[in-house]
Amino acid sequence: MTRGLIQVYTGDGKGKTTAAVGQALRFLGRDCRVIMAQFLKQKDASGEVLILRKLGVEILFWGGDYGKRLIANLPLEDVENIRKEGENFLKEVMQRIKSKRYDLLILDEISVAINHGLIREKNLIELLRNKPDFLEVIITGRGAPSGIISIADLVTEMRKIKHPYDQSIKLRKGVEY
Question: Is 142 contained in some domain?
Answer without folding.
Answer: no
